[in-house]
Amino acid sequence: MNRVIKKIAAIMLTMAVFCMIGCKKADEPNNGGNNGNNGGNGGETPEAPAIVSTSEVQYDGKVFVEAVFEDETKMYFALLSPTEAEVVRGESFYQDNPGQVYKYRGEVFVPESVTHLGTSYSVVAIAYKAFNDCDLITYVHLPKSVTSVDRCAFLGCHNLTGIKGDSVRSFGSWALYDCESLTDVFLPSTTNRIDDLAFALFFETINPNVITTITCMALTPPELGNNVYSGRFIQTIRVPISSVEAYKTADGWSEYADVIVGI
After folding, report:
1. Are residues 147 and 172 in contact, defined by beta-carbon separation less than 8 angstroms?
2. Residues 234 and 184: beta-carbon distance below 8 Å
3. Which residue, 7, 112, 138, 154, has fewest beta-carbon neighbours within 10 Å?
């Protein structure tokens, strides 16, 4: 009897181990990379999944490219020059079929370059409304090649919790407007301009439930447009310790002087 009980216990233990392994695999991201959600803490940005195929269409003299990654997700680009490209909305590619919509979702990895027909194009920008209203996006990793996030690029991405890019210089108007889950805003040392309502919320008054921490690594306070953080309850603004006083007296930043601290 004891031998039978021990055998049953061993079987149950084995089943429990397999269950734990299965659950762990099910929780792993399905985009082929490290989930990287600690990117805003200064960690190394994971690489995008490899691109396995590309195709193109042309409208009004512009070339748009659809790239398919190894995890079967897609991303769309406009070729800006013989060497550069920007991320655009999927609708840009399917202008002949307006009903065709591709919604980005989950953790998004923007590649540093896209190779099409043997030519490599550096991805330098996130274009107007590229990710607009993509409610299922949770985190965005931008490569070092991206220096500009255009107006309305991530407008209405309600579940976006973080965006990390170490080389972004400018955020356009409404760039991350009404992204209420984005409570930790990271601005790299390269940032020099943040336009009107870039990180604002759709509230006429401050929403006390959206407690926001801003980390800005720029030594010189970036130029701020109007109402950049409107609607947010700014708890802390973390800046280089040598620049604290500069931020406290800079236009736009000075209204948050009481919560600006050095790091």
Report:
1. no
2. no
3. 7
